[in-house]
Here is the input.
Amino acid sequence: MTTRGDDDPATGHARALLRTATRYSGVRCAALCLVSTAATGAGLLLPAALGRALDLLLAQAPATRWVLYCAGLVLLLALLDAAQTVLIGTVDARSTAWLRRRLTGHVLGVGPRAADRFGSGDLVARLIGNAAEAGTTPAARAALLAALAGPLGGVVALGLIDWRLAAVFLAGAPVLTFLLRAVARDTTQSATRYQRAQGRIAAALAEAVEGFRTVRAAGTEDRETARVLRPLPGLSEAGHRMWRVQGRAAAQAVAVAPLLQLGVVAVAGVLLTRDLLSVGEVLAASRYAVLATGVGVLVGRLAGLARARAAARRLGEIEAEPAIAFGARQLPDGPGRLELRGVTARRGGHPVLDGVDLVVPGGTTLAVVGRSGAGKSLLAALAGRLADPDAGQVLLDGVPLRELPHDDLRRAVAYAFARPALLGGTVEQAIGLGLAAPSPDRVREAARTALADDFVRRLPDGYGTPVADAPRSGGESQRLGLARAFAHGGRLLILDDALSSLDTVTERHITDALLGDGPAGTRLLVAHRAATAACADAVAWLDGGRVRAVGRHEELWRLAQYRAVFGSGEGTESAYAEAGSAAGA
Here is the structure.
């Protein structure tokens, strides 16, 4: 997408989004434009037909044909208005759906960086509320031509009746033009502030809902409510300003438009007294003066377009965030050798990982340990390209992850997390998520490996139980996440603290399965327990954003600072005994 030189990227992306959304419903937009223009044309013909019929009736001449013309135009206007309503609703719905689908895909393509920048609540507000407002743009633009044609057609019709009528109206036209420009400018500014305040409230509400248990436990409900509603005065101010702008415009229109209409009717009356106009033409002129001063319709259209433009810019800010790009290089056969070369990753402007070099031989298990904030989860994200490093490379079997196609990468790497998101309608679908053709046998085998089969079978409908209706603890959720990773397969399995909610016995059994008859390939474990680290072929000890040491757990255990990662330094005999027991099992 290209942007104008004097535009910021968000505005350029917003324009491009709206252009594409308009093309997406191009046929319907064209039909709406034609129907709206036809309705405007019929509305412009009706006063002339009424005036002609009136003149014939006053002259006691046959007027049946013109009365029928008037009736036909009224019926046509009703039909066109109904068609216009249906088309506007259809185009709005299609455009909104397209924008939501496009932006949702883009957010998922950007990855965690989108939530980091905008916040999950604000993202939801943009994808729901702002997309709905921006989705009205194609229909509004298509109908705008007809909205402009009404006043212009009214002026032309006045000129055809008598040029002096058009001259009277045009004398006050600059005032109306200035009014419309001011409405569009002020409404855009107010709508932008209003929508930003909405986004801040949505973001704060999402945070409060996510942490509702913490809020309730701390007894800070009132404080959280105040925090969520803190942007409300700004929202109210922006909303009131928006309505004041439109109210002031309506008041000015009420003041200016009737004066112009009265001026046209007065001149028409003078011309009538001089026998230069007929009574029917005076009637037609009065109706055309109303059409020519149709500021109310234009104010509404322009205000709607201004709000939609502000909403589209907020969508453009999302679109301006670059999505992760993938390559076309094929992944060769290999054991799953993982290598990090000089990897540096920053968060908030500070390096979390700094020049990390690490090799995980294919088919082995590496445990990553370190204190909180050492960068373990970030390293796990980089290893499977859920995020990209700011410097350095991550390679899988000698191929940089950036150069791999999306599908090849996702087939090769499986993940399990501390708090897995269990997506899908049923438990079986949640475990088989991401598989092209998940078989029941494969799903159940993975569940057995993760020690999830027993409690899944106890659910009301077993594997067919809807995820939302499946009561489960945090440990059981983790086991379902592990089952999903085991079912996925691939040559690299990454467990990002995915055993933290399991009891030690369950963790021991799953660790044994991982290292025994479980999923083959390379395994990267973010570990917080000494027993988990002891089961790995090697341990990478992260400290201060760097790999301080790599070696067997029992070798590193001789170092007091390493032992302190799992406990309190020297006083960790029980942890060591647990680790030794697991290692010897």
Q: What stands out?
A: The mean pLDDT is 83. The first strand starts at residue 338 and ends at 347. The beta strands are 338-347, 350-360, 365-369, 391-396, 399-400, 413-417, 492-496, 522-526, 538-543, 546-551.
